[in-house]
C-alpha cells in the first residue's frame, strides 16, 4: 500500500505531470473502443449473431466462435449479451453458451496484442491522425449512407484508440521520470491485484485497463510482477459489469453471469498462485525480457489459455453445477420471453417463433381434450378445460405484448413481415380453440345422447378426422421446411372441404332414420359448422407459421 500512497503523492506534487492528460487519454481510448464496437455491430451485427447461433453446435466450435466474435467486436460484454439472448431464446444450450464465454475471454487478448505490437512501436500520430482525419471527413461529406457512416466511425474509433494511448503513454513517461521504483520492490502483490480489479470494475473495460498497464510497463512505472498481478485483477474485475447487469434478471441471465464470474475468478486465483512461474516462463524461458510490453501480452494470453485448459474438459459438469445453484423456475402457463431478449432483436424473434410453436401445440392439446381424443389417458383425467382455455388467452396476451415491444426495436422489413405472420398464427390458433370451446355443450349433449348412430358414426368420425389433422399439424411444426409443403397444406385444406360434406351426409342419413328431435339436429349442425371452422383456422395458423411470403401467394393462388 505505501507504493500507491507514494505514487498518488507524486501525482499531486509533480508540476510537469498532468493528471488531465492521463484522464483525457483514457477517455479518448474508451471512446475509440465504443465507436469501433458500435460501428462493427451496425456493419456486421446480424451476420455476427447468425455466426454465433450457427457455429456453436459443439463446445470447441463455441470456444472458437467466442474468440472470433470478441476479436471483431472488441467487447466481451457485447458477446455475453448475445449469448444471454440466445440461451433465453432456447436456441443455444447453456453448455455451449459457457463454451462461448471461455472463447470470449481468450478473444479479449486481441486488444492487448494490438496495443503491444503497434501502440509502442510506430509513430502514433502518423497512424492515428490519418484515420481520424479521413474518417471524420467521410462521416461529414459521405455519411448520408448508413454503411459509409459506420465505416467512417470505425476509422475514427481506430484512430482515437491510438490517440488516447499516446496521451496515456506521454503522461506516464513524465510520471515515471520522478519515481524511484527500487524502494517498492517488496510491495505486497495483492495490492496490485486489488488495483487492477478496482480500475476495471470502475471503467468497465478490461481492454482499457490493459492499455494502462502496458503503458505503465513501457514507461517503467510498473515492474513485471506487479503488472502481471494487475492483469489478473483486471480479468476478475471485468465480471462486475455482467454481475450487476444480472441483478433482478431471470434465472438464465443469472446463470450466464455466475458462470462468467466463476470462470474468471477461479482462473484468476490459479494464475495468482502460479504467477511467478508464468512470469518465469514468458521472460526467462521464452526470452522476452528485452521486450516487456510484448511479454505482458503473452502473459495475458497464457493465463487466459490456462482457464481454457482447466474448464473446457469439464463444461458439462460445470453446466450442471450452475443449473443446480440457480434452478430455472418457469410458470408453464406463461410465455418464456423475458425483456432481456429485446436487447438482441434477432434472438427475440427466434424466441417468439419458438413460443408461437408452443402456443399452437397447446391449442391442439386443448382441442384434443375437448373432443376427448387425448394422446394418453393419464393426462385426460387431470385436464381442466376452463383453466386451459384461460391459460391460452393469457399466453396470447403475453405474446401480443411482447410482439409490440419487439416491433419497436430495429427490425428489417423481412423480420417485421415474419413477426406479423407469427402474430397471425397465434390469432388463428386461438380462434381454432374458441370455435370448439363454443360448442362444448353441444358436443357433450351429442356424446351423452341416446342415439347410437350419432355416437358411433357421426361423433367417432369427427374424432378420427380431427386426430389425423392434429397429427399432421404437430408433425408440420417440428419438420424442416420442404418444397412440397405448400402442396401438402393445400391438399389438407381440400380434404377438410370434403370432410365437411361427408359429415353433412352422415347427418342427412341420420335424419332419414326418423325420430329426429329438433335439439339433436341443431347440436349436430352446430358441431359440424364450428368443427369445420376450427379446422380451417388451424390450417391458416400453419400457413402463416410455415410459409414464406412467396409461398403464401402461391398457396392463395392455388
Architecture blueprint of SSEs:
Layout: H1 2-13, H2 19-54, H3 59-73, H4 76-88, H5 94-107, H6 109-119, H7 124-142, H8 146-177, H9 189-203, H10 206-219, H11 224-237, H12 239-246, H13 251-273, H14 275-285, H15 292-311, H16 315-325, H17 345-370, H18 377-382, H19 385-407, H20 413-437, H21 440-447, H22 452-478, H23 485-512, H24 518-546, H25 549-557
Short description:
With 558 residues, the protein is mostly helical.
Task: Explain how this protein is built.
The chain is mainly alpha-helical and 558 residues long. It folds into 2 domains: 324 residues, no CATH class; 219 residues, Methane Monooxygenase Hydroxylase, Chain G, domain 1 (Up-down Bundle), CATH 1.20.58. The protein contains 25 helices and no strands. Helix 6 packs parallel to helix 10 and helix 19 runs antiparallel to helix 20. The radius of gyration is 32 Å and the shape is elongated.
User: What global shape is seen?
Assistant: elongated
Sheet with the most strands, sense and barrel status = none
The stretches of 5 or more residues where confidence is low (pLDDT under 50) are: none
Q: Helical amount among residues, as a percent range?
A: over 70%
Tally of helical runs: 25
Q: State Rg.
A: 32 Å
Distance between the termini: 81 Å
Q: What is the total tally of β strands? A: 0
| Average pLDDT for all residues | 79
Structural class: mainly alpha
User: Please, how many domains?
Assistant: 2
Order of helices and strands: HHHHHHHHHHHHHHHHHHHHHHHHH
